[in-house]
Amino acid sequence: MDVAFGVLGPVAAWDGAGDAIALKGPRHRAVLARLLVARRRVVPVGRLVEDLWAGQDEPPGDAVGAVRTFVAALRRALEPERPPRTPARLLVTEGPGYALRAEPEAVDAWRFERAVTAAGALPDPHALARLEEALGWWRGPAYADFGEESWARAERSRLGELRLHAVERRAEVQLALGQAAEAVPDLDAHVAEHPWREDAWRLLALALYRTGRQGDALAVLRRARTLLVEQLGADPGPALRRLEADILDHAPHLDPGPGGPAERVWAQATAAYDRTVASGARARLESTVGLLRDLAVTGGGGLEAARRHRLAAITAAAELGDTELTARVIGAYDVPAIWTRVDDPQQAADTVAAAEHTLAALPSDAHLAARARLLATIALESRGTRSARGPQAARQAEDIARRLNDPALLAFALNGVFMQTFHRAGLAPQRDEIGAELIALSARYGLFTYEVLGHLVRLQSRSALADFTGAEAHATAADRLADRHELPLVGVFTHWYRALRLAETGRAQVAEVEAAYRDAARRLDGAGMPGLERGLLPLGLLCVRLRHGRPAQTDEDTDWGPYEPWARPLVLLAHDRPDDARAALRSLPEPPRDLMFEALWCLAGRAAIGVGDRDMMERAHAELTPAAAELAGAGSGLVTLGPVARYLDELAVALRGPR
Length: 659
Known about the structure:
The protein is an all-alpha fold. It has 30 helices and five strands.
């Protein structure tokens, strides 16, 4: 069970379903809070006793036993499905005390720190989204129910200061983006609650000035001066004094920076749109999808928001009963996709169902392009499945696009064709051809997002074919286009590719390769791609170990995500549990038809050799044979298990052995 902890407010815990976990009495909560303050470090039992009964002259005689009782109750609450007499995995006993081994993402305060730090390195629009999200995690003062405890004081103060910094950093970003009016209400409340923060007064005055409220800006600065002089006996600092003089002089540098004019144009255009286009107009739905399409390529919160609102837009169009409008709303979301596992399977299935229903309901005289866009959507959203409909829809969309000689439509259709080019192993050359056509087509007609897609497709296929000179050229081209057009998600894939290249060249030590993969994994944090993120780092590290002839990772608690069925037999073998590994192998599902197809069959084949499962060895050999000239897994552009030929040789040798 995945447990999450909250300390940005009253101390709380939630189970994997998001339901609150009952933590019993205040002493139980205090133990949990004290261990969270320790940040995964061991807290000796004696220190727990001192802290829990700090307000008393002397702890009770049974204090140590009481702490152990609290810990036992917490363990039952946090790991209710743990079998009796098995070691705890979350609240552990270590040396002289206890430690809470919560994952970094499981504690809201730890996530908050990482988010605020990460925002400092992001472009302003992405920094704003990250800060908005992080500040939304606060439910009250940190460790709110332990405000008087000395052991919580320093951590409460540190987190509180970090929150104030985040509020002010958010305001700075809003001002940089030309969103002065949006910054004013939060800054007004901020200075009222924290009147001694001079930078907050400065930001509020600047925001007011930029919204045309010069008098209010000067009044704010006078109010700040009065408070500082009367309450602290100190004059305002140089930043406030300089701002007041600049406002009086209408200094040019107080106007918004380079992003200001664009922001003003945006504000004026959207205001005009709101005035002239009726709130219930169908045109609003089509405009919304255009915005969602642009939002999706910004990554992180933008991608998640686009995914969330896309289905709502489709549903709203369908409810209007206008089939052609629904077709346009569905087909307009032509966001290039490179990863073959969908982020939200249920939403993908719902989108496919809506596209199929709309396709069937379209009048016979409907424009062919609308049909092709629905077909391309079906091909994209059914990726990774074994349905025959996906490849069929991809072929039909491509055929229509070529007949219509529509470059943008053809690029969309080719993306669907790419996603359906995984019906067997060894298809990297075919995907390489698709990538080459995407690059040429997109460069000719200025379709820069599809040009990036083409380079990423070729990065994958050239990696599969062990052409790292070619793969690197495409990675460089993709990065260059991403910088020019502000496409931050591209860097996720190129960083993972460079870890793969380091692993495959053979010149780096295992520790260096593992560090490169961990660094690449950090770029997935907040990228908004759960279909890519979950289980990918453990899989990458497993591939590194196997590539260097080492046993599988021995941590049985690793979250392998969707790769768990293929990793488990090897982990069980590493734990010297061949019978369990054999049983796990017998229940192994067919690998999904995606970029990890060859890699997962190699893992299955290696495990089959380990337990002597001839049937599985024969299946793995048959499935992998078409990819004999490729590197296993490298077609993903993310991980590598080395030459498929090596696994085929190992399987052939094992199959020639005694029955």
